[in-house]
UniProtKB/TrEMBL annotation:
It comes from the Eukaryota. GO terms for biological process: Golgi vesicle transport. Keywords: Endoplasmic reticulum, ER-Golgi transport, Golgi apparatus, Signal, Transport. It comes from Gossypium armourianum. This is Trafficking protein particle complex subunit.
């Protein structure tokens, strides 16, 4: 639910979270549309490029702000001929919160 609201609010796209693994540490985010690729065509020499890789960095950075170390990779990209935009989010570890001060001082 949070992913749907966040993507709709900040990017204006509808996202679905699916394909959870049995541990609950890996899932896919499927975007129905991607406004970053409007009017973009990759030439044949750049087919290895993930044009929207900034999205994976944004997701990873946002999750680091809430103490989650993750790996975010592209699974499908319509610019590369796939049928959808799909990112895989994998939780590597939950980072314990550290406070810069002590309560007893």
């Amino acid at each position: 639910m949070i992913a749907k609201v966040g993507f709709k609010m900040f990017l204006g796209v509808t996202a679905s979270v699916m394909n959870w693994d049995t541990d609950g540490t890996c899932c896919s985010i499927v975007l129905e549309d991607n406004p970053l690729v409007d009017f973009v065509e990759l030439p044949d020499t750049c087919q290895g490029l993930y044009y929207c890789n900034i999205l994976s960095g944004v997701i990873r950075g946002a999750l680091e702000m809430v103490a989650m170390k993750t790996e975010v990779t592209w699974i499908r990209d319509m610019l590369r001929g796939d049928d959808a935009y799909e990112l895989q989010v994998k939780l590597l570890k939950q980072v314990p919160e550290e406070y810069p001060y002590k309560d007893d001082e």
